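Quality-control log, excerpt.
Job 1 of 2 completed; input and output follow.
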Amino acid sequence: MAGDTTSNAGSLREAVIEAIKLGEGEFGKREIARALKLKGTDAKRALKDVLAELEADGAIARSPSKTYTLAGALPSVTVVEITDRDNDGELLAEPVRSDRAAPRIRLAPGEGAGGKGQTALGIGDRALVRLAPDDEGGYEARLIKRLGQSAHKLLCVLRKPQSGPIRLLPVDRRSRHELVPVKGEAEKAGDGDLVLCQLVKGNRHGLKTARIVEVVGDATAPGAGSLIALYSHGVPQGFSEAEQREADTVRPATMKGREDIRHLPLITIDPDDAKDHDDAVWAAPDEDPENKGGWQVIVAIADVAAHVEPGGALDRGAYKRGNSVYLPDRVVPMLPERLSNDLCSLRENEERPCLAVRMVFDRHGNKRSHRFLRGWMKSAAKLSYTEAQNAIDGKGGETAKLLLDDVLKPLWGAYFAAREARGRREPLEIDAPERRVRVGPDGKVSGIEVRERFDAHKLIEEFMIQANVCAAETLEEKRTPLIYRVHEEPSKEKIEGLADFLPTVGLKWTRGERVVTGRFNKLLAQAKNSEHYETINEVVLRSQSQAVYDTENQGHFGLNLDRYAHFTSPIRRYADLTVHRALIRALNLGHDGQSDEERSKLTAIAEDITHSERRAMAAERDAVDRFIALYLSDKVGGEFEGRITGVTRFGAFVRLAETGADGLVPISRLGQERFEHDDREHALIGLETGNRYRLGMTVTVRIEEAQPVTGGLLLDILTPPEKGPRPKGRRRHGGPPGGRRSGKPWKGRKGKRR
């Protein structure tokens, strides 16, 4: 260890922070050690401890590529995508890759304006920029290099009014500015068509010009909500000729070298509309006299690795997609149908290859042992969750009744034991009802329902979790590199926000208290029978970190597990396919396991599939928003019950109880009084009276606008604000600069507006 700078933990902490500043977001552990001239095992262990401590304190943040930045900071040199313009015409941007909420980035005046022979930067363009903090908590960016148009281009609706100019209206709610089609381009499509556009001219002033590169279809047609979501987020669709050719010619796997488990009545239990079946389960009492009352369980997973050759067209395409995407009216699969719905689907009464794990539990649900095998199976039955649950409850149909004694009852017996162990483990128990948008054959929403959650769901979930743990344990034991599913504990900043909010609903979180899942569960139990239960669930959910894929194990906080990997869904997640290949290689189960090339790229793969997952989640949310907005578009003017789920400086977000739809109430529509956002109180507070609209408050709202193309809902609150103490130091009339005022008080807004 060199110098007095690193002679104790306190000074090392300060030195590490300075090194991270010096690295400008590009230093990992090795570069920091080199900058501080740290040598030897003890010095590097001390550095590792300090980095972990700083990260736990929220002082620094680690990127997916294992480099460090100061908390809330972006690297000084960053790739950004242009997303909009502000009211002064300056370009706004967001980081292309960031695990945190994107800060505001504004290009410096004149940056990206273009010059002789060069077009200006526009919405959808990417650029390498140098960032410097500004005075408003964001960044000012200066252009280093143009990187060209982003992959997903710009999706617009073409408008051809009978009188007035023709315009292209971006469907992304963040893009507030219209585009002008190049002369003659508007002839390619009709009024109301969805079109993909490419910016072609970069005027510094006035509207941007674009050409139409593809006509997608009618913006009001059935399924348009899904198309918009997929195109807006750049989700890859369809399969290349090479992929399809490879899928059509792939050889079915054979039984050679596999363990025959066809005699075991494995069954699949899935949603009633499932088209692929990638997991099957079986359970029976353990016959070992040393394990009286114990259970043996087999989880068998479709052997996708047997059909997808590493580095082949199918493998490259699956990696590019990262996962399947599930929208209300369709699925965008990771693999072609011949694999996802045929060769890799565990169909009823058909022989299939599988990768399985046999687990042994004692009568209290503690796992005693496990063993992976490459098997040859035949599913004894295909059941839906409802059918399986009805059979256990004594209401099943003929098929389920035949399976009841020999198949279903043992599964439930093993599950009850596993559930006992789960209770002792105490994972996070957030109650977040999942809503399902049902779409009819005509492409229109036929209803929105809360998905029922039976013991059958929990049984499959728990056995899949146990299988995933076994995969991580086995690969660690065999010292085989793998991609973990990582969920880190909440950041210090988020816990502080939670602690600030809880007193507003009569609860508290003691600062300095150890952050464990049991503490969150205790909080949820305290709120169980109160009017704030839904709000507390939502606030606790928001306080959690986002799960990621990583080659370094950080554990899974939400499940309260030391190690966890995704193993159970290789048809729809590329992460699981990498884990299958790792197991095949580690356990000598075949010649189609993890290659040296794949092993060397696991860190990059983990980062890319994390990005793909975020992309898919965003597209799924957007599609649901658009379908619900379509469903509510003929209910404009109707009144609904809801709950305030978010408050910001520009308004309140309200979730409608009936549909789960989220809508915005702009702060300018809250009445005659001026309201201001108080982030500590989580409320919008009237500057004259102190009356407030707070997070979690139940309100009646009226739908003023529902836009299926953008998925946006504009609402008016009809409920008066709650009484609150008059703010001290406020003027009775007026208030501070920047307050907003609407022309009408809330009392005058109960009548219909037209």
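Job 2 of 2 completed; input and output follow.
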Amino acid sequence: MPEYKAPLRDIKFVMTELLNSEQHYANLEGAEDASPDMIDAIIQEGAKFCEQVLSPLNQVGDREGCTLTDGSVKTPTGFREAYQQYIEGGWPSMTADVDHGGQGLPESVGLVMREMIGTANWSWGMYPGLSHGAINTLEQHGTGAQKETYLNPMVSGEWTGTMCLTEAHCGSDLGTLRSKAEPNADGSYSITGTKIFISAGEHDMADNIVHIVLARLPDAPAGTKGISLFIVPKILPAEDGSLGDKNAVSCGSLEHKMGIHGNATCVMNFDGARGWLIGPENRGLNCMFTFMNVARLGTAIQGLGAAELSFQGSLAYAKDRLAMRSLTGPKNPEGPADPIIVHPDVRRMLLTQKAVAEGARAMIYYTAQQGDIVLRGKTDEERHQADGLMSFLTPIAKAFLTEIGHEASNLGMQVFGGHGFISEWGMEQVVRDARIGTIYEGTTGIQALDLLGRKVLMSKGESLRGFTKQVHLFCKAHSDEPQMKQFIEPLQALNKEWADITTQVGMSAMKNREEVGSASFDYLMYSGYVVFAYLWARMAQVALEAMADGTSEETFYNAKVQTARFYFTRILPRTKGHAASMLAGADTLMDMPEEAFVF
């Protein structure tokens, strides 16, 4: 398994040089304590925890997995102890409300920690990761009494949380879920039903688990308009806040999975369990989107983590592994062969991984800053603009980054050749762990429909224009700089083409709604590559400016410019294929009759 090292220099580059985090935090309400020194100290300490505690457990978790005995789940060796260190370090409370024991830091700061945790050990990171969304949901939609009961122990990390949506007959189509909620005389509800694929649904790492559950009230309307949201704790809290009786919630089985073996993915049975309504009746999905938006951006981190960890592993191997001679003559004349990093095709794979990992970091941090402004912006206009940008970027970040992150993990395995297929190196685990990212929290196809159908076409292009305007202003500001020409000209052309293609798809969809589903995947991938182009152009501009001003880090900044050039010449042309595919029309997909699908 690659030995994870937090990429602190690149994290600092994106935060402080690309996104000007110091000014960003100064512009937020209640973020006065987020000084550069404080943020740097937090990230440095977090890196130590991830490198020294979590990374060594990554392969342990994959090898051992979780075990279920009499309804109780035992996590892999070291997981529970690592979680106690996590609590003692105060990490769960970083971004939570100070009124409930939190530190009140902006969400984007916590996201940096989540990146390092997820890259070091994705399976372990899912246990506290699910709690984050549950806490946000309670903070925004819970009653005063619910917050008083649940938030303090969840913020401290003593209790963890889950999200219970999926049932055996319904995945993303939540309108067909069957779990029931019957009112009790005391104001609580009796929750009955079975949920599947519940990450961290049962484990031995915390004293209690608070399930956020979707269910239907009696006589609720059919479909998504008849779903309500409930708090259902594993152990019922007593009036004094201590733990009382066990609730009628149990883990029926553990799923046997391709990857993320260290995380307990559970079938959860609710057999008349006591629960309490969150938010208005039949508005559960609206409240759940608080959880889902957090979870989607959290899932985007998996794409980044897979690319980063596989890049670190394959880079070290490529510098050490000797095979064949360079086509331009020996580069290691004293040895029997040259290190494989001298070969162009290995460079292609390494540079792709590097471009994906660093581009993904920029995209996630940029999107997270929009989330900060939505929550803490000082004016309605700022909050509204940021909300539009975040809404537009979230499905792109979730789907695009998990798709290309998985591609990067496969390239990492490929760099190792036959050794990549052998478990002791750990590269195949990265591939297996990353594969789920394109599926959960809404598959790539679901995210693509959300982007093109809901976010772009239903807003009549307003959400797209909010982003393309920023791209236009950036290009205009740097169009006269000779060294930026190689980035600005293709970016300007794509920015215009993006709008034109959207109009064409929208016009086709007015005649045939199947055109939206037909074009959506390619539209999302195209959009992702263009967003990356904008961010890589910005990173190149920052690096060029730093070198022009004089720097002792010439190698670092020059690598940024060279990676940007690689991205624009070798990866960005993929947009041409996606453009052709999305404009090919729905007929090529829908004309074949169902009975013709035979084998």
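Post-run check on job 2. The first strand starts at residue 67 and ends at 69.
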